[in-house]
Amino acid sequence: MYSFTEENYLKAIYKLSDNNGSGVSTNSIAENIQTKAASVTDMIKKLSDKKLLKYEKYKGVNLTQKGKDVAIQTIRKHRIWEVFLHEKLKFGWEEVHEIAEQLEHIQSELLINKLDEFLGYPTHDPHGDPIPGENGEFHNNAFVSLDTVEANKKVILSGVINHSVPFLQHLKKIDLTLGQKLMVIEINEYDRSLKLLLNGKIEIFISNEVAKNILVK
Amino acid sequence: MYSFTEENYLKAIYKLSDNNGSGVSTNSIAENIQTKAASVTDMIKKLSDKKLLKYEKYKGVNLTQKGKDVAIQTIRKHRIWEVFLHEKLKFGWEEVHEIAEQLEHIQSELLINKLDEFLGYPTHDPHGDPIPGENGEFHNNAFVSLDTVEANKKVILSGVINHSVPFLQHLKKIDLTLGQKLMVIEINEYDRSLKLLLNGKIEIFISNEVAKNILVK
DNA sequence: ATATAAATTTAGATTTGTCTAAAATTAATA
DNA sequence: TATTAATTTTAGACAAATCTAAATTTATAT
Ligand SMILES: [Mn+2]
Ligand SMILES: [Mn+2]
Ligand SMILES: [Mn+2]
Ligand SMILES: [Mn+2]
């Protein structure tokens, strides 16, 4: 139905939208998708012709419902494949994204629904991001970032904000993976770095920078 | 490394080669890949520049070792994905090929090796075709077509020659699927149609046309 | 051997997606 | 407000893969 490239543009625009009707800028798309602004303008015209987005010259773009649907289905496929790679093939959470970038473009509704069933209808991907349903419904996460949690409250690591490979590798190294039970036991006033207790046993220290990029519930 | 299109050409040429050094013709490639002869000539030049095949004008092409390697790895990926779709996602053997045509182009050696492991290192795909190893080694099947089997000999359905969807659907409908134990109990001289005994219980009739396209061991 | 047919290649276009450089528009600043 | 800066668009080109129509080469048949 739609090309890899078209799906990638729609996904990028979807992620860059703040739903304030503000219009996603050409430059931000170019940066996100690693291409040049001129190329973005060209593609935008094509997507506009196909009624996937609304485009006003120099004013940025907004996805139509049709465009959002395609973007969300692509994200759904991406995240379901990530679960497969992590749960079944035992890829690390820092490895799954790159491969899912390819798999998300496989065209077969039946495939993704059967895969979803095979995985037991997962609700979140290996990074804690929610998996939209078959009809695009999004149950939003009510996670908070770890640097806002008060001391002595038990929480569970449920997601990350920074999805970069080095960050995910670092967390894995210090045993901070999805589902980890933890408690903030000390907040240093000076730099807001934290002392955590993992599983009620091991104590570790993390910087505020790291804490800000961890989501818990 | 190589584009979808390049991999598809190499796979087609590999399958059309009889290893008699005879050179695969432009037309046969065009037919196989559903394109026009002129397009094939263009692509052949490109693949020749990349040392994936040897090309002599008007004389057809022969894959180099490098070209064969790419073709075999693509076939390996195709067949491993077919096993996954059939065994894990419960797709029918007539449904897997089309989706595997897409999945075979996913680029990640690690992915295919982990998938292979996850599936328990299968040796054959859902159609009985052998799966080449990581280093391209091919253990050749010693199957014979059912129309050459003598009466009252127990055999196992181990593959098919015709891979078309209607043929595979038909076999499934009459319970002739991979692994089925059967015995030829009657060969009609007139049209060489057969009476089979399935699992030592059920009797069915098949035409010679069908028998010729079934492989057993 | 010559004529005809079939297969193959070339020439010239087209589509998709990209790019650079230049022009146009909008935003920022003095 | 006038000038500069940043952003965006246009113009023109290019690579990949494809096509049609015409030219060339090889195969087949008289
Ligand atoms: Mn991802
Ligand atoms: Mn993810
Ligand atoms: Mn197949
Ligand atoms: Mn197969």
Could you walk me through the main structural features you see in this protein, from its secondary elements to its overall organization?
2 copies of one chain form a homodimer. The first copy, chain A, is of the alpha+beta class. Among the domains of chain A are: about 5-65, Winged helix-like DNA-binding domain superfamily/Winged helix DNA-binding domain (Arc Repressor Mutant, subunit A), CATH 1.10.10; about 145-215, SH3 type barrels, CATH 2.30.30. The first copy, chain A, contains 8 helices and 8 strands. Chain A has helices at about 5-15, 25-35, 35-50, 65-90, 95-105, 110-120, 165-175, 210, and strands at about 55, 60-65, 145, 155-160, 180-185, 195-200, 200-205, 215. In chain A, the strands form 2 sheets. Chain A has a 6-stranded antiparallel β-sheet. In chain A, strands 1-2 form a two-stranded antiparallel sheet. Chain A is globular, with a radius of gyration of 19 Å. The interface of A and B includes residues 99 and 115 of A. The complex binds manganese (II) ion (MN) (4 copies). One manganese (II) ion binds near residues 78 and 82 of chain B. The structure holds a DNA duplex (30 and 30 nucleotides).
